[in-house]
Specification:
Layout: H1 6-10, H2 21-24, H3 28-31, H4 66-73, H5 77-86, H6 95-102
Length: 108
């Protein structure tokens, strides 16, 4: 399986130009440029669990802490796939390392 970004895996349509942008808005993970290239993804597409306010589980994550967001994300099928693909590689970055890179500030 080749590496894909979260919006491709979940087929949410919230990436720039996606089918659901008009109704649901652009997902912050798809435009988080500071995370570009992490785990081979475009923007935050391979580390969405470290990008605040993604709302992919249907809930509003804007007011949640990073710890609460991550605890919700670890049950996500995409998180499990990406973690399995990346864990143990020299370039692996943990959610904490990623959050430090992007400073937990949404870009929009």
């Amino acid at each position: 399986m080749s590496k894909i970004n979260c919006w491709e895996f979940k087929k949410c349509g919230r990436e720039p130009g996606g089918a659901n942008v008009k109704e649901q808005g652009i997902c912050p993970a798809s435009i988080e440029r500071r995370a570009n290239g992490i785990h081979g993804g475009k923007n935050g597409g391979r580390c969405c669990w470290a990008v605040m306010a993604t709302q992919c589980s249907g809930g509003d994550t804007k007011e949640k802490s990073f710890a609460n967001k991550l605890s919700a994300c670890i049950s996500c099928e995409f998180y499990k796939v990406a973690f399995k693909e990346e864990w143990g590689k020299p370039t692996y970055k943990s959610p904490v390392q990623i959050s430090e890179i992007i400073a937990l500030k949404p870009v929009f």
